[in-house]
């Protein structure tokens, strides 16, 4: 069974919704975003220990601090490539970013191959069902473009600002998938 829980974010962010199988966090996304399509909305709303733990993590994070724990999560349909991308995203430090190209180079090096597709990396980053905790918002375009965020460009900008990134390095594209 899948459960959901609403989280009220601070001003400047869309509110969030979480999913759980009753034990693990299985989804976390911004309400009304493109990511909503990946998750179960029509399910029972229930207070669960995992939602309490995730709420505590989010409270710390939205106060501008890096939490020192990670709520236990489980990801369905996790391929080895997606896991590789998620593992790299989980190592991007708070307040830092990597590009899709950076991640593709890390994977190519780890696999001992000449090249890995940045587009394939983009697909794996965009597939991520647990935003913020798995920090897909920290992945940006090579030229500083804030593109490809399923949680909405407004939220991506706000998350990067919360983490005190130098926003002079980034720009919002005039058109594209992020908008």
Describe the structure.
The chain has 179 residues and is of the alpha/beta class. 31% of the residues lie in helices and 12% in strands. The chain has 5 helices and 6 strands; from the N terminus they run ββββααβααβα. A 4-stranded mixed β-sheet has the order 3-2-1-4, covered by helices on one side. A two-stranded parallel sheet has the order 5-6. Strand 1 and strand 2 form a beta hairpin. Helix 2 crosses helix 4. The radius of gyration is 16 Å and the shape is globular. The protein starts with a strand and ends in a 17-residue tail after the last helix. The model has no long low-confidence stretch (mean pLDDT 93).
Number of helices: 5
> Which regions contain 5 or more consecutive residues with pLDDT less than 50?
none
Number of strands: 6
**Helical fraction:** 25-40%
What characteristic shape results from the CA principal axes? globular
* Computed CA radius of gyration, to the nearest angstrom: 16 Å
Largest sheet geometry: 4 strands, mixed
- Could you state the oligomeric state of the chains shown? single chain
Strand content: 5-15%
Kindly, what is the distance between the CA atoms of the first and last residues, rounded to a whole number of angstroms? 33 Å
Structural class: alpha/beta
- Output mean pLDDT: 93
Order of helical and strand elements: EEEEHHEHHEH
**Side-by-side strand order of the widest sheet:** 3-2-1-4
């Amino acid at each position: 069974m899948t459960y959901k829980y609403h989280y009220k974010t601070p001003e400047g962010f869309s509110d969030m919704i979480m999913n759980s199988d009753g034990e693990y966090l299985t989804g976390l996304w911004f309400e009304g975003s493109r990511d909503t399509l990946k998750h179960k909305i029509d399910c029972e709303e229930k207070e669960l220990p995992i939602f309490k733990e995730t709420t505590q993590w989010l409270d710390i994070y939205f106060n501008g601090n890096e939490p020192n724990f990670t709520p236990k999560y489980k990801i369905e349909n996790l391929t080895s490539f997606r896991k590789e991308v998620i593992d790299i995203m989980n190592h991007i430090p708070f307040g830092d970013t990597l590009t899709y190209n950076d991640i593709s180079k890390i994977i190519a090096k780890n696999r001992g191959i000449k090249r890995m597709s940045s587009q394939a990396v983009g697909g794996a980053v965009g597939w991520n069902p647990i935003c913020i905790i798995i920090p897909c918002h920290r992945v940006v375009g090579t030229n500083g473009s804030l593109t490809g965020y399923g949680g909405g460009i407004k939220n991506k900008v706000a998350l990067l600002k919360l983490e005190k990134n130098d926003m002079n390095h980034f720009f919002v594209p005039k058109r594209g998938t992020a908008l």
